[in-house]
């Protein structure tokens, strides 16, 4: 380093001298330095000035001023002296290192000489070694082939392991629900089979993968049967489409069948509630609304929307659809026949269930709540085009008709049992038709008016206008009639909860038929009761007008005659008044009340008032249709009204006859009082006992003979005429009874049918 610095300083001095000598020529500084280096025979003068240090120094020197440049040799000389001193100090301090380096270099020279000799001997032995290697290679050729295969197997071990693990990995993905990854593995196996189909292991792997994909297909179809939401179903159907195992129609069939299986599995959970029809139907409708609606909406979203999307896509360049005319290309998906079939099948099952279980429900409130629930269900289905509200009303209408018919028959049965019991036990109407305290009320009714109850002081003024909320107060005087009215009121109250407008004509007909049957029963009883009086009068008249020769040959003398205590005229009149009041209360009180309760109470007057409905029925009937039918249904009521009016006409004598009857009644009562020793007359039973033969004493026969003789011949002839009239009336009444019984039987059969 010091030498280089000294040389540089010398070169610089010489350069200055040359510059002074040759002012005309001005070579560059680098050129001058190179020339001096050549003159001094330095090693590689060209490379001396190509190092970075030299370039930096020359650049710095070139930028120095003249004064600095003149001082530069001195600076370089000082630096060279400093470096030389440092080098000397280093040599004295590290002399051992320099000695060791010298020894190493000597040993290296010796080793190179021996290495050269060894190399020469090795080169001489190489030909024989090469021959031996060729012989060894020939003998180990098979081993090398096996080793090469093993090496290749070892080299591709990871790839082969991945290939062999594809079936197991696919099965794991399917088991854990990673269907996308499983399909990618299946696609990879197909590609490997296409490229290396001749390799046995690849074919085996492909078979295992196909088995795994079939398991995936089974699991995806199982997902469709589970209780899952729409996203999971969309995902499962999407994977089934990608598997390309089922076409679109088969996929739709599989989807609907699986969802129906899921619905049936849900219904199994409510089978234990079949014993409670209301609860079972309510639960079934809830499950039907949730599951079937979900199936329809899911099918629409998954398949119909998918078809619309496919149809909206532009055709491919090589698609056959381009060959079709524009009008033949489909613009909308085909009608969802499978969905329609599924909806029809599900709805048929629901209707079958309603047909089976609704008749078992008798609670009107339960029927009303079920119908409301079904209407809400049908309204929700209307959003998907399946409004079945008109189909579910028929079972409820039949249930309402059955309930009304049963309730009305129960009310009729109560009245019929009471009437038959009274006839069987021979009770007078005044003893059971009303309580004892109401007899005076009935006997005081005005016989000269057809509305006696509206003329009494016991009836409030509010009853002059029939109310649809409370029955006439005078019905309380007739307990059995009040019970019948209560039966009809209970029926109307049950209809308030569920009263379809379509059933109005049917309900009106059922009510009229029930009232007509009750009127027929009441009419039959009334005629039977009055006919018994006629039969008793007939028996007494014939016994009094028929005489046989007796002891002593006196005409008119009867021997061992049978005497029956027949009813008096007062008892007859009282019975007729009671029957007339009972009939009037039925015809003019109960019948208008219950009919108005149905028309204006239950249906709220939506179809008009009772009078308007009757007028409309008659107008529609046209005299031979509906009007005739209504007349037939009201036949019992009209006949009962006619009978009541006939009784009123019979009990309504002129004023002179009334005064005479009063005098006659007083005389009869006086004579009876004398004969009976002042004892009061008990009302006789209405049941005749003509067969109860009683032996009269001899004094009674003589007295009766004397009475007959005193009466005279004219009175006997008059009695015979009265007997003939009573016999004729009795025969007519019996014919009417036969006709009424036949009509009542026909109406009962019509109602039951």
How would you describe the overall organization of this protein?
The protein has 753 residues and is an all-alpha fold. The protein folds into 3 domains: 2-93, no CATH class; 160-313 and 331-385, no CATH class; 400-549 and 562-669 and 686-752, no CATH class. 74% of the residues lie in helices and 0% in strands.
Mean pLDDT: 74
Beta-strand proportion: under 5%
How many structural domains are formed by the residues?
A: 3
**Sheet of most strands:** none
Distance from first to last alpha carbon: 140 Å
**Unreliable parts:** 311-334, 454-465, 536-565, 621-627, 674-717
Q: What is the number of helical segments per DSSP (H or I, 4+ residues)?
A: 27
Q: Which range best describes the helical content: under 10%, 10-25%, 25-40%, 40-55%, 55-70% or over 70%?
A: over 70%
Encode the helix/strand succession as letters: HHHHHHHHHHHHHHHHHHHHHHHHHHH
């Amino acid at each position: 380093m010091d030498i280089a610095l000294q040389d540089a300083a010398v070169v610089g001095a010489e350069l200055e001298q040359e510059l002074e000598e040759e002012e005309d020529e001005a070579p560059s500084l680098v050129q001058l330095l190179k020339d001096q280096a050549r003159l001094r025979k330095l090693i590689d003068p060209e490379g001396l000035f190509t190092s970075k240090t030299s370039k930096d120094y020359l650049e710095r020197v070139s930028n120095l001023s003249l004064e600095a440049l003149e001082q530069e040799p001195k600076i370089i000389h000082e630096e060279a002296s400093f470096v030389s001193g440092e080098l000397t100090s280093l040599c004295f301090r590290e002399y051992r290192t320099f000695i060791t380096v010298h020894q190493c270099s000597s040993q290296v020279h010796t080793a190179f000489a021996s290495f050269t000799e060894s190399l020469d001997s090795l080169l001489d032995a190489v030909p024989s070694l090469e021959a031996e290697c060729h012989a060894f290679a020939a003998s180990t050729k098979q081993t090398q082939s096996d080793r090469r295969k093993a090496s290749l197997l070892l080299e591709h071990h990871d790839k082969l392991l991945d290939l062999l693990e594809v079936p197991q990995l696919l099965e794991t993905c399917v088991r854990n629900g990673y269907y996308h990854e499983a399909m990618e593995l299946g696609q990879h196996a197909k590609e490997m089979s296409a490229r290396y189909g001749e390799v046995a292991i690849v074919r085996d792997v492909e078979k295992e993968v196909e088995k795994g994909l079939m398991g995936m297909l089974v699991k995806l179809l199982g997902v469709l049967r589970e209780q899952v939401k729409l996203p999971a179903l969309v995902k499962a159907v999407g994977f089934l489409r990608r598997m390309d195992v089922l076409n679109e129609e088969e996929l739709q069939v599989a989807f609907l069948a699986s969802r129906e299986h899921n619905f049936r599995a849900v219904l199994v959970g409510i089978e234990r509630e079949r014993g409670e029809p209301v609860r079972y139907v309510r639960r079934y409708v809830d499950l039907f609304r949730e599951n079937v609606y979900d199936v329809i909406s899911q099918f629409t979203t998954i398949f119909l929307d998918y078809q619309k999307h496919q149809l909206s896509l532009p055709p491919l360049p090589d698609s056959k659809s381009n060959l079709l005319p524009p009008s033949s290309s489909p613009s909308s998906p085909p009608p969802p026949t499978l969905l329609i079939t599924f909806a029809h099948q599900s709805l048929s099952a629901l209707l079958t269930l309603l047909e089976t279980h609704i008749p078992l429900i008798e609670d009107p409130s339960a029927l009303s709540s079920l119908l409301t629930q079904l209407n809400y269900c049908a309204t929700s289905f209307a959003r998907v085009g399946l409004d079945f509200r008109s189909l579910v009303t028929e079972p409820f209408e039949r249930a309402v008709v059955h309930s009304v018919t049963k309730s009305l028959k129960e009310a009729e049965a109560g009245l019929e049992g009471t009437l038959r019991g009274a006839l069987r036990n021979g009770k007078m109407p005044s003893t059971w038709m009303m309580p004892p305290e109401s007899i005076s009320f009935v006997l005081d009714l005005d016989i000269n008016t057809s509305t006696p109850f509206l003329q009494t002081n016991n009836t409030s003024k509010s009853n002059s206008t029939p109310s649809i909320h409370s029955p006439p107060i005078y019905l309380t005087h007739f307990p059995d009639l009040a019970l019948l009215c209560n039966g009809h009121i209970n029926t109307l109250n049950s209809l308030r909860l569920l009263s379809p407008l379509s059933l109005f004509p049917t309900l009106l007909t059922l009510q009229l038929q029930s009232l007509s049957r009750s009127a027929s029963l009441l009419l039959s009883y009334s005629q039977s009761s009055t006919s018994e009086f006629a039969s008793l009068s007939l028996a007494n008249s014939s016994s009094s007008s028929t005489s046989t020769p007796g002891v002593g040959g006196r005409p008119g003398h009867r021997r061992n005659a049978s005497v029956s205590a027949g009813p008096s005229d007062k008892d007859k009149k009282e019975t007729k008044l009671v029957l007339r009041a009972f009939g009037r209360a039925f015809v003019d009180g109960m019948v208008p009340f219950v009919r108005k309760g149905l028309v204006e109470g239950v249906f709220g007057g939506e179809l008009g008032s009772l009078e308007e409905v009757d007028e409309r029925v008659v107008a529609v009937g046209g005299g031979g249709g509906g009007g005739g039918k209504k007349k037939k249904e009201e036949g019992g009521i009209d006949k009962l009204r006619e009978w009541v009016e006939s009784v009123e006409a019979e009990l309504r004598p002129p004023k002179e006859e009334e005064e005479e009857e009063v005098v006659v009644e007083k005389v009869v009562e006086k004579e009876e009082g004398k004969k009976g020793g002042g004892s009061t007359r008990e009302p006789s039973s209405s049941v005749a006992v003509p067969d109860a033969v009683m032996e009269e004493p001899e004094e009674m026969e003589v007295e009766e003979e004397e009475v007959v003789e005193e009466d005279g011949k004219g009175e006997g002839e008059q009695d015979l005429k009265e007997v003939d009239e009573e016999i004729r009336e009795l025969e007519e009444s019996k014919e009417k009874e036969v006709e009424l019984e036949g009509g009542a039987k026909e109406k009962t059969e019509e109602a039951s049918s």
